[in-house]
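Re-running the complex after MR caught last week's input typo. The corrected sequence lines follow. Everything else is unchanged.
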Amino acid sequence: MASPPIAARDLTKSFGARRALDGVTLTLGAGEILGLLGPNGAGKTTFVRSVVGRVRPDAGSLSLFGFAPSDRDAAALRGWVPQEIALYPLLSPRENLVSFGRYQGLRSDDVAAAAERTLAWAALTERADERTDRLSGGMKRRLNIAVGTIHRPRLLLLDEPTVGVDPQSRERIYGMIEELRSEGVSILYTTHYMEEAERLCDRIAIIDHGRIIADGTREELVRSTLGKSRVLTVDSGAPLPEGLRQKLAERGATMKASAAVVPVEEPAKDVPEILDLFRREETPVADLRLATASLESVFLHLTGRDLRE
Amino acid sequence: MILAVARTHLARLRRDRAGFTLAFVVPIVFFSVFALLFGGPRGATRRIPIAVVDEDRSETSRRFVDALGREPSLRVQTSRPGAGSSEAAAWDRSSAQHAVREGDFSVALVVGRGFGERPIRFGGSGDPPNLTLYADSADPIAPRLVLGLLQKVAMTSLPDSVASSGIAQMERWGAPLTAEQKAKLEERLGRLRAGSPGAPAPGAADASGLVAVETKDVLGEAKKNPASALLAAGLGVMFLLFSSAGAGGALIEEAESGTLDRILGTRVTMGALLAGKLLYLSGVAVAQLVIMFVWGQLFFGVELTKHLPGFLVMTVVTALASSCFGLVLAAASKTRMQLVALSNLLILVMSALGGSMVPRYLLSETIQKLGLVTLNAWAIDGFLKVFWREEPLWRLWPQVVVLLAAAALLFAMARRLARRWDAA
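Corrected-run output:
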């Protein structure tokens, strides 16, 4: 069997006293889009930088198509789109693409054609010769992605590629990623945005405090963590009393400061029961929401935090 | 790969008008202003090394040479260094001339035969001078200073001869002395001969012309505008260091923007990245020096085409060394501001010590020796050999070896400092 695009086992990495990766085991299959979700500081970027060879793990094993991340063959097979707009601001999009194409070892004969193709893919042909620092934020983001793909990598690492992007540009970026998927490119996609992960990713891994705490398809995650298809959020507007918290916890609820998020299977039966608990503990109900269980609720259930915290 | 890095930077330079201006126009403006204003520095205090040849070997010439040796402004050598003071090792006219040509001395003095008989000459005697000063006018100060000192030393060390000559003139143009007057005079002159030769004599401050000296320029007589080549070299090297440090700062910008990280995530290694930057910086530096010297040839009499091979050799090694220096500064600095402060400080000090701002011959001997730790001094010495001494190419080897070794050392330092950007 061919080696997978990413195979990480028990990766650990500490920066001083802070443990950024704490035994990460994760595999990305060929042609798969794997979403890596986690709050800020969870270890997403450290993991991506390990895959790029810019972070040396303290322990564990990591291979890309069977190569070590620092291997030149791995570099040729891998494309990286960092979170920052890491481009030459004074160069044009075309010059940026040509430069990075050369850095990736493309021959002079091929690099111009590759740049042309990539510009068209990113819808930047019309602005190809302007200075990059004069492009809009969305265009810079698209160019940032384009630069990571000029050499047609088989594995693409997208680190929060839509941060600060307007909805129109975001749609364009989603379109670019769909095209890569259709070409069979394997993608590791880190994001804060649940809807992105739900829309684009075949599989989702949730990372928190440097550990993978869940890994599967959206449906698998909902089923394995919540066990129910819907969640009821009840907000009292004031801290919940301890007795009520205990009773809600017995129903698998996740507590926030003044609210509880309770998984429910049969709303007609479960909702009155939950509201009755509030009534008995003399706790007012200020707001009530019933929703289909989402990655957001999975994440909250697993980490006790919202993703954007 | 290395070429790719260099080409990217070339494209960047085209977009950075301020950087472009700094790299090419400002040095030319500076050079022009200095070349126009350079009227000869004054007020230098240093000991001038001088080779002295006593062909006369009379008692008077010995007294004269001894007095020169006691002169605090001069460092007199009558024999070659390391050879002791035996007669066989003493300078002769041709070896002293050669030493000046080689740059070991700015001046050499030959006390010719017959000096002892008539050292002092009042008025135009018509006889050829018997003191000859061989000078290298690359240093325009030393020969003039020595000329003045010769008059002073003649006055203070040979007061008897001054008096004798004066009386001879009086007898010639006035009336002869009586026998009794002559006897008394002889007695007084004897006392003068025995007196302290170093003591100032009345009128010494205005003793110009007491001894007739013929000055011969051993190198620069045929040159059109010698100072311009030296200025171009001095200022050129200084600006090369500045522009290399500035351009090397792109490394800091790349690190700050995350571009450096991204580049190192491709197939480019840190070694290749630095080598590419070195190639680019050196190319720009060579272009800067070429433009500067072409400008110098067009408007200030620098004889570039006549000295092209030597110029190219010195330009390439100087460009390499200064580019590596720029890389070290960039790799050592954490921010642009740090780089600006560090480079301003180091480059200005190096330029002052190394002869880019003020010719080194104006500095004290200690500072001159200290200056040899700077790239400027070695580069300027090399250009001096090419444009001034017109030495054959192979004679540039000390400068070439030192500058190439400095380049290699600095590049290794830059690579080591850049380890902070290696994978964490």
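None of the earlier attempt is carried over here. Chain B has 16 helices and five strands. Residues 39-44, 196-208 of chain B have pLDDT under 50 and may be disordered.
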